[in-house]
Specification:
Layout lengths: L6 E4 L5 H11 L4 E6 L3 H13 L4 E5 L5 H12 L6 E4 L14 H29 L4 E7 L10 H21 L5 E7 L5 H9 L3 H8 L8 H12 L10 E4 L10 H6 L1
Parallel strand pairs: 1-2, 1-4, 2-3, 4-5, 5-6, 6-7
Helix pairs in contact: 1-8, 3-4, 4-5
The structure holds NADP nicotinamide-adenine-dinucleotide phosphate (NAP).
The site of NADP nicotinamide-adenine-dinucleotide phosphate (NAP) has 31 residues, from α1, β2, α4, β5 and α6.
Length: about 260
């Protein structure tokens, strides 16, 4: 058990990748706080699944994009027990071509993905330093932290910003024994892209061809990276990114030709 008696806060832990990470950490004995913004039912279901694995678990509502809500959540959690791990995973995406990006779509994605990551990242860092806890922080970004996704420009910009946020934190927090890294996820079918997959039924096969490992990612793939980055196995890793994307970034457009032959 890598995380016996430890507590992790997972933002956006109620569904999708965040939920998968909650389960992966809990299987290694970690107690979990499942943050959510609006879907209490999903959060409660995740908490029940985690408790069935034999760990302590609780739900905590807060919009990570609102500093006062993050502070309220942190005060409430840490008045009951300590925290050792932060997985900053909450995220949203809008589809719009660059010429059609609206200020509203910009603000929505920036507030949740980038300001939200900063809010929880700084609140947790302050808590770790004050409590003298050598904590671990992992931000769930995307391979779009490096390369843009068509019609997901704002989203790609937010993920690129979170990559630099993690590096800034890693640099300044190293002296406090705090490690900060990112998990750059590839394509995983969750609620965030379900509409897109339904609208473009060929998308699943197309990505299966383009991705060198010929499959979409799973929440378990992301959880494996989170377990590594939150355990002592990664004590000498900070300011870094693990790409969990099946090799999509090394394709360079070549793979589809090979497969089609
Ligand atoms: N799925 C992919 O292909 C993919 C690829 C690369 C990166 N990612 C990244 O992985 C992360 C998780 O995505 P997902 O696919 O698991 O999405 P998802 O299934 O839509 O889940 C999103 C989660 O984020 C929470 N959330 C949304 N806005 C929030 C806010 N303002 N404050 C707190 N929580 C908030 C949701 O809470 P509620 O349940 O309360 O709504 C939910 O738990 C995101 O950062 C996303 O960008 C996903």
């Amino acid at each position: 058990m890598k995380f016996k008696d430890k507590w992790a806060l997972v933002t956006g832990g109620s569904r999708g990748i965040g939920k998968g990470i909650c389960i992966g950490l809990a299987k290694e004995g970690c107690n979990i706080v499942v943050n959510y913004v609006g879907n209490k039912k999903a959060a409660d279901e995740t908490v029940a699944e985690l408790k069935a694995l034999g760990v302590n678990a609780e739900a905590a509502q807060a919009n990570v994009g609102k500093r006062d809500e993050v502070d309220r959540m942190m005060d409430s959690i840490t008045s009951e027990h300590s925290l050792d791990i932060l997985i900053s995973n909450a995220g949203v995406v809008d589809m719009e071509s660059f010429l059609e990006i609206t200020p509203k779509a910009w603000d929505y994605q920036l507030e949740t993905n980038l300001l939200g990551a900063f809010n929880i990242g700084q609140a947790m860092a302050r808590y770790f330093v004050k409590s003298k806890i050598s904590g671990k922080v992992a931000f769930v970004t995307s391979f779009n932290q490096e390369v843009p996704n068509g019609s997901q420009g704002v989203y790609s910009i937010t993920k690129s910003g979170v990559k630099m946020l993690a590096k800034v934190m890693a640099l300044e927090l190293a002296e406090h024994g705090i490690n900060v890294n990112t998990i750059a996820a590839g394509a995983v079918i969750t609620d965030i892209n379900r509409k897109q997959v339904e609208m473009f039924p060929g998308l699943i096969d197309r990505l299966n061809k383009i991705i060198p490992l010929h499959r979409w990612g799973t929440v378990e793939d992301m959880a494996n990276a989170a377990v590594y980055l939150c355990s002592s196995d990664s004590d000498y890793v900070t300011g870094s990114t693990i790409f969990v994307e099946g090799g999509i970034m090394i394709n360079n457009g070549m793979m589809i030709n090979v497969v089609d032959e």
